[in-house]
């Protein structure tokens, strides 16, 4: 990644000028890392020895991140891990649900999917296509069926069939629409009649800019978010918004999506991610 790397590497050889600081400010702003980190990291540049900068920036970012667990919460023995996938429109929820299903299946879990986005027939078909490809069962309902009832059926079936993981894909919803946010609460309530929801993962589009924090905050106010999946951290995207969101809300980034293929999802490695930011490409 090396977002700041090539820039910082200059300072191991020379001192930091006022122009350099302004250039770094622009770089920080364009990385979407947010005003708080930008101010702090600029302060660090001003008061650090050039050769120590990379290490200090890395440590400063790492120290600001949450200490909460990044692995998925394990339910007590023999119960079902139930993961609710939420977020605004088009962030990568359905793709991430499928990728996560594949990742967990590969680690030996018995996974089932629920297509609780019933607003569009295409949404159900999209998840079905993924599920067929990775040979994982998917519970669907009719178009415009109550998403909570699809999720309820899926939870019942998951239990009956002894699945270890249920992943519920939901429709994209604007965080500003309170009726849609209420619908999420209903899905949660209804599923929890069958089994506790162990994770609610907010899917954050890594290219979304500072609005991502506002989205995540509103979601976290109406539903208890336990983690973030940051998507589209490939190509030109730098993922700064994910670090800023984790820091502001104290919600751990748990997975990172780096492409459109089924295997393009990895557990988030904070140390490695931040080290890569300051390393020369
Ligand atoms: N490059 C890249 N593209 C991604 C990633 N994750 C998802 N996408 C793409 O983003 C687009 C939207 O993905 P979906 O999974 O349909 O998003 P969604 O959140 O389910 O969308 P709605 O259900 O309409 O709200 C698709 O074209 C995906 O292929 C990623 O990590 N990297
Ligand atoms: Mg979708």
Question: Can you describe this structure in just a few lines?
Answer:
With 281 residues, the protein is an alpha/beta fold.
Structure description:
This protein has 281 residues and is α/β, with parallel strands linked by helices. It has 2 domains: 60 residues, no CATH class; 188 residues, P-loop containing nucleotide triphosphate hydrolases (Rossmann fold, 3-Layer(aba) Sandwich), CATH 3.40.50.300. It has 11 helices and 8 strands. Bound molecules: guanosine-5'-triphosphate (GTP) and magnesium ion. The site of magnesium ion has 4 residues, from helix 5.
> Any low-confidence stretches, pLDDT <50, length ≥5?
none
> Helical content, roughly?
40-55%
Looking at this structure, what is the CATH superfamily of the largest domain?
A: P-loop containing nucleotide triphosphate hydrolases
Beginning-to-end CA distance, first to last residue: 6 Å
Question: Any chance you could write out the topology, listing elements then pairs?
Answer:
Layout (H helix, E strand, L loop, with lengths): L4 H5 L8 H13 L3 H14 L5 H12 L16 E6 L6 H14 L4 E6 L4 H13 L4 E2 L7 H14 L4 E6 L7 H14 L7 E7 L5 H12 L4 E5 L8 H10 L3 E5 L7 E3 L2 H9 L3
Parallel strand pairs: 1-4, 1-5, 2-3, 2-4, 5-6, 6-7
Antiparallel strand pairs: 7-8
The structure holds guanosine-5'-triphosphate (GTP) and magnesium ion.
Guanosine-5'-triphosphate binds next to helix 5.
């Amino acid at each position: 990644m090396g977002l700041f790397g090539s820039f910082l590497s200059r300072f191991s050889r020379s001192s930091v000028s006022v122009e350099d600081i302004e250039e770094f400010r622009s770089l920080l702003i364009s990385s979407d890392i947010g005003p708080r980190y930008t101010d702090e990291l600029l302060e660090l540049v001003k008061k650090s020895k050039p050769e120590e900068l990379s290490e200090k920036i890395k440590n400063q970012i790492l120290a600001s991140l949450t200490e909460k667990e990044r692995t998925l919460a394990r339910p007590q023995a023999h119960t079902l891990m139930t993961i609710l996938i939420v977020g605004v429109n088009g962030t990568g929820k359905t793709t991430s649900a499928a990728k996560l299903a594949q990742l967990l299946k590969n680690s030996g879990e018995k996974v089932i999917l629920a297509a609780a986005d019933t607003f569009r027939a295409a949404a159900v078909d999209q998840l079905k296509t993924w599920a067929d490809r990775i040979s994982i069962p998917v519970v669907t309902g009719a178009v415009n069926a109550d998403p909570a009832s699809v999720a309820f059926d899926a939870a019942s079936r998951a239990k009956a069939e002894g699945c270890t993981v249920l992943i519920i894909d939901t429709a994209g919803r604007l965080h500003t629409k309170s009726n849609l946010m209420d619908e999420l609460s209903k899905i949660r309530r209804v599923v929890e009649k069958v089994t506790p929801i162990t994770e609610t993962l907010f899917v954050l589009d890594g290219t979304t800019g500072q609005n991502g924090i506002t989205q995540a905050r509103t979601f976290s106010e109406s539903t208890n978010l336990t983690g973030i999946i940051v998507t589209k951290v490939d190509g030109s995207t730098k993922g700064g918004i994910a670090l800023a969101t984790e820091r502001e809300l104290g919600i751990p980034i748990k997975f990172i999506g780096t492409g459109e293929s089924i295997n393009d999802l990895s557990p988030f490695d904070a140390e490695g991610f931040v080290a890569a930011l300051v390393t020369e490409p």
